[in-house]
Each structure stands twice: as C-alpha cells, then as structure tokens.
C-alpha cells in the first residue's frame, strides 16, 4: 500500500490558471478549419469560430491562448491581417506546408476568439523578420485608447475600444526558426524591441516574455539573462522554455502516435519526466539572477511530437492522441503545479489538430482527445493554492535507461474550498493501492473522476467516446484517511472535502 500525504494546512504557492494554458499557431488545421471556419461556413459558428470547438474549450476553462506562433510568429506581419478580408494580403506559410495563408484570421479575429473563450491573450511578436516599428505599432493598435495613428486605424476597422493584452512575447525560438541568433545578440535585440512594447495603460500592464531556451540549452538561459536581466526596471517579466516529448528522442524518426509498444510507452514517459530536470536546472540559473523569483518561467510550448498521421501533409503536424498522451499531460500538469514558485504559465502545443491537441476536427465532426479529458479533470487546480503533498513510489519500466516512478501527484486547495488531488499511474500492468493521509484534517466526503484504458486507446470520429472520464467509485474515507485503488494506466482526480 503506497502512502499519499496531503497537508491541507500547508500552502506552498499560487497555481496560476495559466499553468493550463494553450497555444494556437497558423499551422496546418489549427486555426483554419479547427477553430475558424468563417461566418459563411455550414459548420455552426459565431463570428466565424466553430461553436462545437469553442464550447469544448470553454469546458476545460482555457485560461490563456498564445498566438500567432511559433515559427509563424517571426514571419507574420500583423498589418496583413486587418481590414476588409477580401483585400487582405495572401502569403505563403513557408514553415508549415507551403500553403496559402489568406490572413482572414488576424488580430480582430484572435481577440474575438479570446472573448468567446473568456481567456487571457498572449501575443507573440515578430522579432525575426519584423521591425521595431512594426512591433511597436501592433501594441499601439491593440492597446492605445486615445488619438493616434494606430488607435485611429483600429477604430476605422470597427473596434473603438482598445483591447487588453495580457502577455507579449518578443520573438519565438530566436535560436532557431526565429532568426538563428546567438543568445548575446538576441539579448541585445530583446532590450531594444521591448523598449517599444509600451505600457499605455498603467492599470493593464503587459507581461513581457523573452525567448528562452530549447530544452537543455542552459547556455542560452544564462547568456540571455546576463544580457537582459534588469534587476527590476521592467525589461522582462518572463523567460520562455520549449520542450517537446519525442518517444525516440530522434527528430528524424519520432515514432507513431498510435502504433507503439510497452518499451515506447516507458521511453516516452521517461522523456516527458525530463521536464522536471529542465525546470530545476533552468530555474537554478534564473535563481542566480533573480533569487526572489520575480521572473516567470513560461513553458509556452510543451507536449508530444510524433510522426504525422500517415497520408496527411507532413507540414501540418497532425497526430492522434492516446492514453499515452493523457499520461504525458497528467504528469506535466502535476509538475507545473509542483514548481509553481517559478513556473507561471505553460501552453500545450497545440490546441486543435496539431501535435498534442485537446480537440481534433474533421469537417463537421469533432472529438475530444484523452488529453482534453485530463485538462478537464485538472481544471479545479486553476487559481488554487498548491498544498504540501507527496506519494510513495516505486521504480518501474522495461529498460534501465528509461525507468520511471510508478506514480506522480499534486494537490491544491481549490477556490471552491475543496482539496483537489490529481494522480497518474504510469504502470501498464499494476494498479496501485493507495492510502491517502490528510494531516490534521477529518475527511467529510470524497468523490473522484478517473480516465483509464489501454495504452493505445484513443478517440476517433467514428468512436468519439471510446476514451472518456468516468466517476470513480473505488474509494473509501474514514477519519483523516482515504483508501483507493488507482487502476493501471490511468489519471485520477479526487475532490476531498475536509
Ligand atoms: O509547435 C510547432 C513548432 O514547434 C513551433 O512553431 C515552434 O516554435 C516549435 O519549434
């Protein structure tokens, strides 16, 4: 019997809702088809946004949405995406499939999507191929209330009032697709560009995010901070980090999303757990510059990356989503909670039809993926307080190099006054008997939701409910204890009233 300890009286930090954030890029069928179908579409929509998709996303309480990329951000010129649609410039999306981008989804449409979702906005500016003036004018267009050339243009385009922009990224992957820069050079450019990301409304400050490292590139983190870190003068609020989970660790042959075996399972989970090492090691460098932890670590791209589904455009990054993805999601969301002292936002890549999507679409049809269900089960952590908690684990796996703990967990005191515990069981074979011990508390009631299934199980358009969360009955409470059996290959949410 493994012991799970939760202390409802010891709070360890605030869980920003943004830890469960999302990312949508002009890539494949994420924006077009997946979210935006246009007002004249046969697919039911509100101002061009698919109603079914928006509804599914509202159910998981999407807290923040990053846009327009990704690599696309550094070749996006925002003025191409405003004004009358039939007059908007068409361009080639060189990064993603070489398709024609007609710019029918632009600034106004993105802000309308955020309005419909009720989420915060995270816009990623173009530092790679855009000018300082262009970035500066975008911020003016978006947020300036008074009389100015860009505010007047926005009004002429039908939006009288400025929008609130919550987060602004200054370049994306500037070490790679965003300009192939060295960290010192990027750091200097960042200093310059961010100067003109003006905070026009002191009551609505913009949180500025510098481009951080690719996975384990600690040199990048160190040099960018050495160049940029401002000791409080407002140059930067956050530094990003990108890390994708590839089953093989090989970009040339990543592996299939659905055709995999038990070894691939543990390799994938082992590789996703590397996220904790990354948080700790990049975090230690950030601590050297910012011991008070004012600077947020913004993990604005994470998730699984497999070979594309056979027969689909390789540039569209469309992949299926199985119970393996559910475990990856549950493990990472637990990790982000545990490290909420430094991690302030995380954005899964990507929201619809691309990489580890929460929703897949095909014509009129839509399915919620296992990953969607995990976000749904974890949503009560949003805005909660992380609680002190731990679980006893054993090492499992099939290869010494890719061993993993059998369990992960995190616990929070939710805004609803309940204790929320989320657990993942990484074992393909063994259920786990768990005795939950709630320190100095008496458990009044407990209820749960579980997502379980075979490792390759997934939802299809013909069988959209094959993997779905269900009520968890296998739980008993007495005194300060809660006993339950966590099925193999599962994710669990317990809501405990103490
Ligand atoms: O999410 C897909 C791509 O991955 C993004 O455009 C880029 O930032 C990253 O390399």
Descriptive labels:
Immunoglobulin-like; alpha/beta; globular; 2 domains; TIM Barrel; 10-stranded mixed beta sheet; single chain; binds alpha-L-arabinofuranose; 498 residues
Written description of the protein model:
With 498 residues, the protein is an alpha/beta fold. The chain folds into 2 domains: 2-8 and 387-497, Sandwich (Immunoglobulin-like); 16-382, Alpha-Beta Barrel (TIM Barrel). It has 9 helices and 26 strands. It has helices at residues 51-59, 107-117, 132-143, 149-156, 183-195, 218-228, 262-289, 323-338, 370-378, and strands at 2-14, 21-23, 45-46, 49-50, 64-67, 91-93, 99-101, 120-125, 167-170, 207-214, 238-245, 296-304, 343-349, 359-362, 365-368, 385-391, 395-396, 404-405, 407-413, 419-425, 432-438, 445-452, 470-472, 475-478, 481-486, 490-497. The protein has a 10-stranded mixed β-sheet with strand order 23-22-26-20-19-16-1-21-25-24, covered by helices on one side. α6 (218-228) links the parallel β10 (207-214) and β11 (238-245). α3 crosses α4. The chain is globular and about 65 Å long. Alpha-L-arabinofuranose binds at residues 25, 69-71, 172-173, 301, 349-350, 355.
Please identify the top-level CATH class of the largest domain: Alpha Beta
How many helical elements? 9
Give the tally of structural domains.
2
SS content category: alpha/beta
The CATH architecture of the largest domain would be Alpha-Beta Barrel
Instruction: Classify the oligomer.
Output: single chain
